[in-house]
Amino acid sequence: MRNTGGNAPWQPGGRPGRPLSEREIREMRARKARRMKQLRRKRRIVLLGLLAVCVLTGVLVAAVSGRVRSWKAERAAVQAAAMQESMSASAAEAESLAAAAAEQYRDNLPDMGAIYGIAVNGVGWSHFFADNSYSMAPANSYITALRATLNGQPEGMSGTIRYRVNLSGTGWLDWQEDGNEAGDSAGSMPLEGIAMELTGDLATYYEVLYSVLQDSQWTEWASDGAEAGAVGVGLRVDGVRVSVVKRTGGAVYAGNIDPNRPMVALTYDDGPSPTVTPRILKCLQDNGGRATFFMVGKQVIKSPDVLKQMVAQGCEVANHTFDHTLMTKVSPADLANQLVATNQVVSDACGISPVLMRPCGGAKTVEGMNIAGAISMPAILWSIDTLDWKTRDASQTIQTVLEKVKDGDIILMHDLYDATGDASETIIPELVKRGFQLVTVSELASYRGGMIPGRSYSQFRPIS
């Protein structure tokens, strides 16, 4: 098992058994409303069919017994035929609506993601994590339960996500779905494996990929109900990653990323800004890119709606302490409080908890890194420092990035300055034009060796 050092208690910032956020509840209610609408349509079709059968039966009985006049029988037969025609039309309409809903997305599938949480022995439920995030138990602890739901399910597309777990000492448990608990969050037995799949129309157009951390190694991606994790051999699950991707007819990759193409991670510190960050988000959206935002907790409180937009676009929310505290200037306990408080306000704002932290100024201590490990967070540094906070010069920032950028870089900027917003509006489309995929840090790491809590990373070069 991995040991990142330190003995500080893990404080995910969540409350055991924390209910779903209002946004998640609204999404689940909308899905249920769609299912009920489909069910009511099917019921109407069945009732029309039964009514037509009854009318036809009455016509036949009346005709045989001679108790009704022929013109009434003919009229009833016409009515019955009309009902049958109506029933067929209703059935055809239902099929047409379903086909239209599917066809609407066939060539233009929207991005969709998983949202998932873990229960940790002795702690309880974590906050929810975003699609393809590293959700990991802290050092010297383990996962006892899992729950998951979907974010961004296309309107009119049926189905949900379902999952099951292998609980040590018990074996594979029943399938659960849509935010329900799989495992035993109140118990003490660890998970040994997981399996997941999509249902309904979703299974036709999307695929869920998942991986677990066992014995300090991430397993290969599994999908379509296959088992992830070695069960029955004394290994426990210490981390879970889940990603929903589009089916393309060929190979599929987590985050809809092509690992054979170059990729970089743009990162922004010290925000969010109510004016600059939205500009950067719009530019990312216009160019099909994502970024990672290492945010200061006291700034998050001022602009919660900006975080909702980050999550909606698939960007990564990350932790930069509550008030930009240097690791070298505070005690381990104070650092832990800073990180936990920031996780809490980020989760309160957008329903997603950070899994990464960045030491302010890049300053590290052994004790501070042990705290990061105890809170189950890798520390992310950078390979290109634009010094945008110092120069406040857009042209200088652009030049620094475009002259130095290579596959696997983590690029440092700050989304507090107008000049950084100006620079980003040039850098982002130019990197895309050069063939770079703009991905989050977690996405970059997932194809370049992964991350472990309590360790620091400044780049993720291609694995030879």
Spell out the key features of this protein.
single chain; 3 domains; alpha/beta; globular; 20% strand; 21 strands; TIM Barrel; six-stranded parallel β-sheet; five-stranded antiparallel β-sheet
What does this structure look like?
The protein has helices at residues 22-65, 70-106, 202-205, 276-286, 297-300, 304-312, 332-350, 366-374, 388-391, 394-404, 418-433, 441-446, and strands spanning 113-120, 124-125, 135-136, 143-151, 161-167, 171-172, 176-177, 182-183, 191-198, 206-214, 217-218, 222-223, 239-246, 263-269, 292-295, 316-319, 379-380, 384-385, 410-414, 437-438, 456-457. It has 464 residues and is of the alpha/beta class. β10 and β11 (217-218) form a beta hairpin. α6 (304-312) packs across α7.
Short summary of the structure?
Helix content is 38%, strand content 20%.
Helix-strand layout with pairing:
Layout: H1 22-65, H2 70-106, E1 113-120, E2 124-125, E3 135-136, E4 143-151, E5 161-167, E6 171-172, E7 176-177, E8 182-183, E9 191-198, H3 202-205, E10 206-214, E11 217-218, E12 222-223, E13 239-246, E14 263-269, H4 276-286, E15 292-295, H5 297-300, H6 304-312, E16 316-319, H7 332-350, H8 366-374, E17 379-380, E18 384-385, H9 388-391, H10 394-404, E19 410-414, H11 418-433, E20 437-438, H12 441-446, E21 456-457
Parallel strand pairs: 14-15, 14-19, 14-20, 15-16, 17-21, 18-19
Antiparallel strand pairs: 1-2, 1-4, 3-13, 4-8, 5-6, 5-7, 5-9, 10-11, 10-12, 10-13
Helix pairs in contact: 1-2, 4-11, 6-7, 7-8, 10-11
